[in-house]
Structures are given as C-alpha cells and as structure tokens.
Amino acid sequence: MQGLDEIYLRKMEVSDTDKIVEWRNKDRVCRNFVYQEPFTIEGHLNWIETQVETGLVVQFIICEKSSDRAVGSVYFRDIDRRKGCAEYGIFIGEDDAVGKGYGTLAAKLALSHAFEELKLNYIFLRVFEDNMAARRSYEKAGFSLIEGKREEPVINGVARSMVFMDISSNKA
What we know:
By secondary structure, the chain is α+β, with helices and mostly antiparallel strands. The chain has a domain at about 5-125: Gcn5-related N-acetyltransferase (GNAT) (Aminopeptidase). About 30% of the residues lie in helices and about 35% in strands. The chain is built from five helices and nine strands. It has helices at about 15-25, 25-30, 40-50, 100-115, 130-140; strands at about 5-10, 60-65, 70-80, 85-90, 120-130, 145-150, 155, 160, 160-170. Strand 2 and strand 3 form a beta hairpin. Helix 4 packs across helix 5. The protein is globular.
C-alpha cells in the first residue's frame, strides 16, 4: 500500500498521557469531538484504567517512521467482541502532520488490525457533517456514508449535525 512506509502504529502507553492531553486540548482537535471539556491527565489515566485495561478500547499512537515521532492517536472504542463491532476514532495532534495523509494511512493500518487481529467484522464512526477533510480521509480508507443515519448533539448550546460512516471486514 503506497505511503504505509511513512507511519506505523504502536500501542498507547501510560507514558503517552502528557502528549495526548496536550493534543486533545488543542482547539483544532477538540472542536472535532463531541466531548469538548478540557482534557486532563487524571481523566486520561481513568480512560486507560476503565476502558483500555478492560478491553473496551484499543488505542494506538501514530508515529512517523523517519523520526519515530508521535503525531497522533487512533483507537477503537466500545468494542463488543460478541457482536464483532466497535467505534473508530482518530486525531492528528501535531500541527505539522496535518494534511500529509497520515489519517488515511493510520485508518488503513488500524482497520487491518481490527479485522485481522481483533477479529472484528464491523466498524463505524461518527463525524461532524461539515468536517469534509475527515470525511474524505475516511472514504479513502474504505468507510462509506450510512444514508439517513445522523445525530445532532448540542455542543456549547449549538446543535451540530453528525453523520455516520461504516466499513465491514468483507469490504475492507
């Protein structure tokens, strides 16, 4: 796959907490999440303890191969191993890594892991309807829009439209 030699994924570790908190508190990153409260070290450590360590979440750090520099994170949450499904999420935290195609590459690597290693067969995501860059990236990775499925969470007093996208193992 072209470009996959540019990045790799590694399992997130507790030592990544400071960087993840820094990234998630950036306005560019935060505004693309439903949860927009300030991210804290304590909150992230709780996420690790209650979500990652229990197997409900599998989270990776996206790293540039040329420098081993961490540039973002990708994860599967609410993993239901009985049904074989999970929700996908990603963010590129380093400003100079945005627009390089890392999100698409990370999605392809993460989906391969989800289908081959985790034995999941269905992944979905939610994305703000107006986040066209993310939607294009997800499409390049193989996700398709779920027609008619949407939600409108109220964030800071304003309703924002979200659409859903999905991919199954037989389409990957």
